[in-house]
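#lab-general

N.A. 3:47 PM
ok so I finally got the sequence cleaned up, no stray characters, all 158 residues accounted for. can someone with queue access submit it? mine expired

B.Y. 3:52 PM
send it over

N.A. 3:53 PM
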Amino acid sequence: MNSTDQNRKRHQEFNETAERIESLKAGMAAASLFGLLFLVLWGVESWVGLSPPSEFLSLSPLAIPTELLRAGIALLTGFLFGVTYRYILRQDTNRQLQVGAIVAFGLIRGLAQVELLLGQVPLAALRLLGNLLSFAVVGFALSWMMQQGWVQRCPDRR
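B.Y. 4:20 PM
back already:
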C-alpha cells in the first residue's frame, strides 16, 4: 500500500470516528432530554392520580426495580431515537420523513404501553400522548442543536 492509499485510509477512519462521535452526541442529548421528559410525565401521572407517587416512594421492593427499568428503557429509547433521527435528517429537509420518524417512534413506544395497560384507559392514553409529545420535543430539539452546530448532520453519501 503506498502513502496515498494509507492517507486515504487514515482519513476515512478519522471520518468514521468523527461520525460515531456525532451520533453519540445526538444519542446522549436525546437520551438526556427524553429522560427529563419521562420524569415530567411520571410526575404528571402522579399529580392527576393515575400513578400514585407513594408506590415508588414507599421503597416497596417491587416498585423501585419497575420504575428504574421504565426509566432505563426510556433513556435507551431516547438514545436510539437520537442516533436514528440524526441519520434521517442528513442534509435534506424532508419534513414528512422527520415527522414520520417522530410519529413512528412515538407510536411504537406508546402503543406498547397501551397494550400493557388495556384495563387503565386514562393512563394508557396519557402515556401514548406523552410519548408522541416527548419524541416531538426531542426531534425538534435535535434539529435545533444541528442548526446551532452543536451536533453535526450526518453527511449524505449518495
